[in-house]
UniProtKB/TrEMBL annotation:
Keyword Hydrolase: yes
GO terms classed as biological process: acyl-CoA metabolic process; fatty acid catabolic process
Record bears the keyword Lipid metabolism: yes
Catalyzed chemical reaction(s): a fatty acyl-CoA + H2O = a fatty acid + CoA + H(+)
Recorded superkingdom: Bacteria
SUPFAM superfamilies listed in its UniProt record: Thioesterase/thiol ester dehydrase-isomerase
Enzyme class: hydrolase
UniProt-recorded name of the protein: Acyl-CoA thioesterase 2
């Protein structure tokens, strides 16, 4: 695997400390605080170590911002082991306090009623530029103090369908979409559905919250904005591969009381494979003048 893909797999591979207790390392991805997708992916991975069934849903709350310079302890509570469904509660602990909690449910696929909404029509991934290419076109807009962090390569490859300049945002419709996959194929010795689900949880947090900012002409780089993920939900509908392009289509339905509600759908080979929901904090603040 390429170095970035290997880094991602290692980030989501936890150390077992004791029965139902695991430790994950942290990585600076979006600043001093731990990237929410890292905690989502690691928490799902911790829960998956206690079962051999794939997940079908995850419901999580972000309670405190995590420290990107410190590891995170994950405690898994085996709530229920049923014939059809297995339930796990996960607590992420850092510096002695719980920073994140999630409920995860696992089950085996079974035959039943089958329906999905129609996949949206967008240009194919080979017809849109990668995020890395687009960043090179924006380099003159990037302030010197954030240039290094903004220009670094992500652990996954992203191709925005409707790219914007985050340093000069304009009011737009509350919709957004991009293609996403790992940079390289997942190696056979770690190629299992539970890892693919953890990686999808990791990248499900990219840009989702920002969708509700678009009607307001704001972006995650706006200096007068305080934003943070408050909660996150993922539903896993069908099997998928994270080393093949996934279309992540997002929209927001409301922004009020300094919060925005966002919805996402992941498509692969014409199949709706995952759905996401996230409410984010969108608080305007005064900019201090020298």
């Amino acid at each position: 695997m390429n170095t970035l893909t290997q880094e991602l797999v290692e980030l989501l591979s936890l150390e077992k400390l004791e029965e139902n207790i695991f430790r994950g390392q942290s990585k600076k991805i979006v600043g001093k605080r731990v990237f929410g997708g890292q905690v989502l992916g690691q928490a799902l991975r911790a829960a998956s170590y206690t079962t051999d069934r794939p997940a079908h849903s995850l419901h999580a709350y972000f309670l405190f911002g995590g420290d990107a310079n410190a590891p995170i302890i994950y405690e898994v509570d085996r709530i229920r082991d049923g014939k059809s469904f297995i339930s796990r509660q996960v607590r992420a602990i850092q510096h002695g306090r719980t920073i994140f909690m999630a409920m995860v449910s696992f089950t085996q696929p079974e035959d039943g009623l089958n329906y999905q909404v129609t996949e949206p029509e967008y240009p194919a991934p080979e017809d849109v530029k990668s995020e890395a290419e687009l960043k090179k076109q924006l380099v003159d807009f990037v302030p010197e103090n954030v240039r290094a962090s903004f220009m670094h390569d992500r652990l996954v490859e992203i191709k925005p369908v409707m790219p914007v300049n985050p340093f000069m945002p304009q009011p737009e419709a509350p919709v957004y979409a991009h293609y996403v996959k790992t940079h390289d194929k997942i190696e056979s010795d770690v190629d299992e559905i539970l890892l693919h689900q953890s990686i999808a949880a990791f990248y499900s947090d990219f840009t989702l919250m920002a969708t509700a900012l678009r009607p307001h002409g704001l972006s995650y780089m706006s200096p007068n904005l305080q934003c943070a993920s408050l909660d996150h939900v993922i539903y896993f509908h069908k099997p998928f591969r994270v080393d093949e392009y996934m279309l992540y289509d997002m929209d927001a339905t409301v922004s009020t009381s300094a919060r925005g509600l966002n919805f996402g759908r992941m498509w692969q080979n014409g199949e709706l494979v995952c759905s996401t929901v996230q409410e984010g904090l969108m608080r305007l603040r005064e900019i201090e003048t020298p």
